[in-house]
Amino acid sequence: MTILSFVAIFAGLGIGTAHPNFNHAAMMVLGVVLGSALWWVILSGAVTFFLHKRINTSSLKIINRLSGAIIFLFGIFALKVFL
Hints:
This protein is mainly α. 82% of the residues lie in helices and 0% in strands. It is built from three helices and no strands. The chain is flat and about 50 Å long.
């Protein structure tokens, strides 16, 4: 999802067409990949460090159901907008 967000931002701002050189494109891709990897390492490390002891089976069920409901509602909204 993060990489798709970067693609959307770059396409919207026209960043990919400013320098049609292979080196610039490779550096941009490398930056996106490393930035996304760093973000997920920091995010998962923070969750592990702060919330590992607090999350039990029942709270994980609640988190899963809330996440599923949000994704479902977003899908319904996307279908409504695009159809």
